[in-house]
């Protein structure tokens, strides 16, 4: 928006993101770096995240075992889930930064 000299204020952007979240069109995500990120819920199936603590890469994955585990746990405890967040933090093998760190460069 800055590059296009937009007159929209930062507050308007954040208020709009909050409204879209309240309408369930977006989901707020926090991947551990004290930044809020947003994901579209439009035509999205449930998914989880792998987050590299070195390079910051975020990889989405889906595994039916996770969904089954959530169903089992909530059923056992008599809990009606409305959502969940499952993030795995670690080190990836994909980015050059991570490969170099593993090779001692």
Structure notes:
With 105 residues, the protein is α+β, with helices and mostly antiparallel strands. It has 2 domains: 1-42, Arc Repressor Mutant, subunit A (Orthogonal Bundle), CATH 1.10.10; 45-105, Ferric-uptake regulator, C-terminal dimerisarion domain (Dna Ligase, domain 1), CATH 3.30.1490. It has helices at 10-22, 64-76, 96-102, and strands at 26-30, 36-40, 48-52, 58-61, 87-90. Strand 1 (26-30) and strand 2 form a beta hairpin. The longest helix is centred in the first third of the chain and has 13 residues, at 10-22. It starts with 9 loop residues before the first helix and ends with a helix. 0% of the residues are buried.
CATH topology of the largest domain: Dna Ligase, domain 1
- In terms of DSSP E residues, the strand content is 15-25%
Q: Widest sheet: strand order?
A: 4-3-5
Q: Please trace the helix and strand order, writing H or E for each element.
A: HEEEEHEH
Please work out how many helical segments DSSP would assign: 3
| Oligomeric state as shown | single chain
Distance between the termini: 38 Å
What spatial form do the alpha-carbon principal axes imply? flat
CATH architecture of the largest domain: 2-Layer Sandwich
Concise summary:
The protein is of the alpha+beta class. It has two domains: 1-42, Winged helix-like DNA-binding domain superfamily/Winged helix DNA-binding domain (Arc Repressor Mutant, subunit A, Orthogonal Bundle), CATH 1.10.10.10; 45-105, 2-Layer Sandwich (Dna Ligase, domain 1), CATH 3.30.1490.
What's the structural blueprint in terms of helices and strands?
Blueprint lengths: L9 H13 L3 E5 L5 E5 L7 E5 L5 E4 L2 H13 L10 E4 L5 H7 L3
Parallel strand pairs: 3-5
Antiparallel strand pairs: 1-2, 3-4
């Amino acid at each position: 928006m800055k590059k296009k000299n937009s007159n929209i204020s930062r507050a308007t952007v954040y208020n709009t993101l909050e409204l879209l979240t309240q309408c369930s069109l977006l989901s707020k995500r926090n991947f551990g770096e004290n930044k809020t990120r947003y994901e579209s819920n439009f035509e999205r199936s449930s998914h989880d995240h792998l987050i590299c603590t070195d390079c910051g890469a975020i990889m989405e994955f889906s595994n039916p075992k996770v969904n089954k585990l959530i169903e089992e746990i909530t059923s056992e405890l008599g809990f009606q889930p409305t959502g969940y967040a499952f993030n795995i933090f670690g080190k990836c093998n994909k980015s050059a930064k991570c490969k170099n760190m593993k090779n001692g460069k």
